């Protein structure tokens, strides 16, 4: 089901959205209004691209570890925004200056957060794991599991396993 949602999202973002933008710019808008429409649309998409790592930055600050934030992505995001900003300063185009200033700020913030948290030790997290059978909350089972930095996905899943109690409608709730 997740693959279907991913395919639908790819189709919407790579085919339908650009198609609608092109159709609107060709059919509806003309002259300077068309340039303004395309400029604002492209600026918004670029700002969204530069702002997309904000959720990862929040996760890094909460967990105090940079495991989920790739350094090279943050570095090249900053480098890309800086290169475009330097180029755009000669053009004086606000549709390019504004998103790249946002990119410079976002990339700088990411690298600063990376520098702050890169050497912080990962704390062991105690998590209560509950398995709930759908429609049978009276039969709730609970288990305490310790997850550490070195835990692999397989080890975590083995710790969470309720092999004989799990049904097709089982769910695990991670409660800090």
Automatic annotation (TrEMBL):
Keywords: Membrane, Repeat, Sugar transport, Transmembrane, Transmembrane helix, Transport
Transmembrane segments: 7-31, 37-59, 71-91, 97-117
Signal peptide range in chain numbering: none
InterPro entries, alphabetized: SWEET, SWEET_rpt
Gene Ontology biological process: protein homooligomerization
Presence of the UniProt keyword Protein transport in the record: no
Tagged with keyword Membrane: yes
GO molecular function (one): sugar transmembrane transporter activity
Subcellular location: Endomembrane system
Membrane topology field: Multi-pass membrane protein
Cellular component, GO annotation: endomembrane system; membrane
Domain of life: Eukaryota
Family the UniProt entry places it in: Belongs to the SWEET sugar transporter family.
Protein name: Uncharacterized protein
The organism of origin for this protein: Solanum bulbocastanum
């Amino acid at each position: 089901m997740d693959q279907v949602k991913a395919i639908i999202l790819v189709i919407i973002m790579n085919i339908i959205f650009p198609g609608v933008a092109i159709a609107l710019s060709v059919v509806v808008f003309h002259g300077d209004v068309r340039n303004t429409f395309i400029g604002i649309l492209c600026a918004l998409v670029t700002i969204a691209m530069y702002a997309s790592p904000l959720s990862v930055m929040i996760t890094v600050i909460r967990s105090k570890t940079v495991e989920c934030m790739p350094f090279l992505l943050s570095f090249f995001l900053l480098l890309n925004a800086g290169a475009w900003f330097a180029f755009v300063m000669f053009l004086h185009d606000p549709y390019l200056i504004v998103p790249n200033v946002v990119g410079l700020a976002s990339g700088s913030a990411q690298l600063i957060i990376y520098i702050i948290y890169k050497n912080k030790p990962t704390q062991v997290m105690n998590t209560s794991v509950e398995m709930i059978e759908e429609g049978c909350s009276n039969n709730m089972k609970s288990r305490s599991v310790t997850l550490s930095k070195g835990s692999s996905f397989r080890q975590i899943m083995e710790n969470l396993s309720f092999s004989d109690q799990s049904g097709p409608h089982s769910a695990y709730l991670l409660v800090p």
